[in-house]
Amino acid sequence: MNKDLDLNLLKILVLLDKHRQLKPVAKAMGKSEASISKYLARLRLQLNDELFIRHPHHMEPTDYLKRQLPKIADALEKLETCLISGEFEPENYEKDITVCLPQTAQYSFGHLLAMDLMELFPKAHISVATITEYTVEEIILGKVDAQLHYFNDDLPKSVHQKFIGYAPAVVVVPEELGITTLEEAAQLPFIMLEIIGWKEKEQLAKRAMESHG
Fold it and tell me: pTM (2 decimals)?
């Protein structure tokens, strides 16, 4: 491998393989599309491979990159693990802390979470933000420290997930309908809310209801 290879740019390859377009990668990394194109050109030179083939509506990794991507992702994960300090003193932590929540959770108890974090990390700047479709990438890049969400088995191993509790689900119907059972409610037309940041192409509520008959 080229000794001049910029390891910081390898994250671009992982993100570009996932999104297959420059725009979401640029947004996740807080860069312009022109900058991402420039970094990709540098990587092509350093790795002596085209890396991604441009098509009309997407970019596709070369056979060489397809073979290397698992190694790159694993190496980045190990590097991040090595940089984690063995001892942690929250009262002396001075960096920014950003936690992302779904909008409903943010409105319900976001202010309480912020107060608890400010008490636990008195020297840090605490931000409670709303989850977006790019939050996972921002976690990988170190721009977001944590998010509160449903468990997602599609996330990469570099994103640690920890169970903290169950969230009850409810079905909301107009009172004037007089419906008191789930069986009656299930006969009505449903509006499924999109759960941003959790398998956008899959309806979690629909899957949960189907799994329970």
Answer: 0.56
